[in-house]
Structures are given as structure tokens and as C-alpha cells.
Write a structure and sequence with these properties.
- It is a single chain.
- The protein is α/β, with parallel strands linked by helices.
- It has 2 domains: 147 residues, P-loop containing nucleotide triphosphate hydrolases (Rossmann fold, 3-Layer(aba) Sandwich); 65 residues, no CATH class.
- Helices cover 32% and strands 27% of the residues.
- The strands form 2 sheets. It has a 6-stranded mixed beta sheet with strand order 6-7-8-3-9-10, with helices on both faces. Strands 2-1-4-5 form a 4-stranded antiparallel beta sheet, covered by helices on one side.
- Strand 9 and strand 10 form a beta hairpin.
- The protein starts with a strand and ends in a 7-residue tail after the last strand.
- The mean pLDDT is 90.
């Protein structure tokens, strides 16, 4: 499902320079895997996710996500890649002037869907995340946990192949974080491939899965039980 082959990548610094994050990185994630990506701030977790949704092309090497390859990607194909991915951000990135229903429906409208298809699919995913009763609320009227549920609903409404989650519980208290994590585990149990960047070792230990540590330009597998809480 996901393959990085001899990938080198960097990210921009405030002064305009670039800092190399990865050099010669090789990584494979199989279809249906649940994978945590851990590491300190600035280690490259977000850069790795950006490589996968091809917001940041590699300096060298090749990134493959399903049938899409960075070395063959044409600009016109990028929207099709993004539609095959469900992306969950820590800071929600909801549209403040649209209610819950419209925030989720927007992800379908941009793909050309309309009418009954949109309504049925949006109501289905809102029911799944437990927010049917708040579909006419605006983001500012929701708690942090509820906003993240809307983000998850928006991420899955297009029935993606892969979920990429960047610190999805980073701004939530532990009890709410557990609720959100269980939604991801439910998706995984249905066969979804999930890559989640997180610094919440408590969650990784409580709900163990394959865990990759990013540090010093490398990605290595670690045992979740060995992590310090």
C-alpha cells in the first residue's frame, strides 16, 4: 500500500534554508496495517506524512501510495491521490462558516458528488462518529473531541484506502483521546490502512500496533512496551 524507496527529503527553515530530514529512507507499509509513527518534535514525522500525500516531493528516491508514484505523478493526478487518502490533522482545519454537515459534505462536493449520494454518505459517517444530533452545529459550538470526530468523518466520507493522521489526539485530554483512538481502531478492524503520527506513548502502549520511531534521519521499528510513558 505504501512504499518509500531510497527517499531523501527536507523541510524549509524560517530563514529560507532547508534542513535534510531523511537520506536513503526505505519503508514499506502493507495494506490493512495499523502503524504508529513516533519521535520528538522536528524529527520528521509530519514531513513523512507530507511525502505520502505528495504535498512535499522527495529530493531523490521514490514514494508509492497504492497505484500513485512520486516519480510519475502528473499535476492532474494529484487530486485523485488525495481523494484516495483520508487526512486527519491535529488542528482540525474545519471551515468555521459551515456547520458539521456542510464540513463533511464539502469533501464530496469537490469530487463532483451531489444530491442523495452526498446526503446518504454524510449522514452515515456522522452516525458512525456519533454526531448525527449535532450536524447543524458550527465548529465553534463543539468541544475539541467533537471537532476531531468531524475531521474523522470528513476523512472517511470518500471511502479512502489509507488514513494519515498527524497527532490526532494531541490537543485532547486522555479520556477523549481514548474515544478518538477507538474510532481509529474500529476503522482498522474494518480493513483500513492507518498511519498515525503521535507523541502520546500512553496510547501506543494501551493500544499496541507496529511502531516506527523517527530520529536522526532514520526510521526504525520499536517495541511499544519499551517506550517510556
Amino acid at each position: 500500500m505504501i512504499e518509500l524507496e531510497n527517499v531523501s527529503a527536507s523541510y524549509p527553515l524560517p530563514g529560507g534554508e532547508k534542513r535534510e530530514v531523511f537520506s536513503g529512507l526505505n519503508l514499506t507499509i502493507e495494506r490493512g496495517e495499523m502503524v504508529y509513527l513516533i519521535g520528538p518534535t522536528g524529527s520528521g514525522k509530519t514531513t513523512l506524512l507530507r511525502l505520502l500525500y505528495m504535498d512535499s516531493p522527495p529530493i531523490s528516491g521514490r514514494v508509492r501510495v497504492a497505484d500513485f508514484r512520486s516519480d510519475r505523478m502528473k499535476p492532474a493526478e494529484l487530486p485523485f491521490l488525495r481523494r484516495s487518502l483520508g487526512i486527519v490533522f491535529q488542528d482540525f482545519q474545519l471551515l468555521p462558516d459551515r456547520d458539521v454537515y456542510e464540513n463533511v459534505a464539502f469533501a464530496l462536493y469537490v469530487t463532483g458528488k451531489s444530491g442523495r449520494v452526498v446526503r446518504n454518505r454524510v449522514l452515515h459517517v456522522l452516525s458512525w462518529v456519533g454526531l448525527s444530533h449535532k450536524r447543524r452545529r458550527f465548529p465553534h459550538e463543539l468541544s475539541g473531541g467533537e471537532q476531531q470526530r468531524v475531521v474523522i468523518a470528513r476523512a472517511i466520507v470518500n471511502e479512502p484506502w489509507v488514513i494519515l493522521a498527524d497527532e490526532p489526539t494531541g490537543n485532547l485530554d486522555p479520556a477523549v483521546a481514548d474515544d478518538i483512538q477507538r474510532l481509529f481502531l474500529n476503522l482498522h478492524s474494518q480493513g483500513m490502512t492507518i498511519l498515525m503520527a503521535t507523541h502520546d506513548y500512553r496510547l501506543v502502549q494501551k493500544y499496541p500496533a507496529r511502531t516506527l520511531a523517527v530520529a536522526d534521519g532514520t526510521v526504525s521499528e520499536v517495541d511499544p512496551a519499551s517506550l517510556a510513558g
